[in-house]
Amino acid sequence: MEAEEARRDLEQARQSYRASVEPRLPAWAPPICGFLVGAAIALGGLSPSPRWLKAVTIAVGVLLALAADQILARIRARQGVTGLRGPARRERSSTVNAFVVILICAMAVSSDLRWMWAGLGLVVFLYTWFTLKKRVLA
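Given the sequence above, the corresponding structure tokens read:
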């Protein structure tokens, strides 16, 4: 009986760990988060002529990306998962590094490349959607 109880406890610990690393998402979350992140990338490449307008478009892009992050954080919190541990922490670190690189590139981009950034935004939208779709509740 103790071996069976130990197996159940171990399985419960594994499920708890998986839930903390990859929380289950409602069906509406992947397309919305994908759209927000893709729009943030596309806005980074708009590069309008006046510097203040360029700064505004980059700031709006940052806000869109932070909104997507907050949606996922609130879903995790509703599931009782707070903080980042293990692979989730490493994943967040990689995401933040990529965000900083894209932000620096957006500040230096010329208006000639806006179509490339729009295409990149579309690719990021689709990638984010399909990556997060794997975590949708069945």
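Residues 51-78 form the longest helix (28 residues). Try to locate this feature in the token string yourself.
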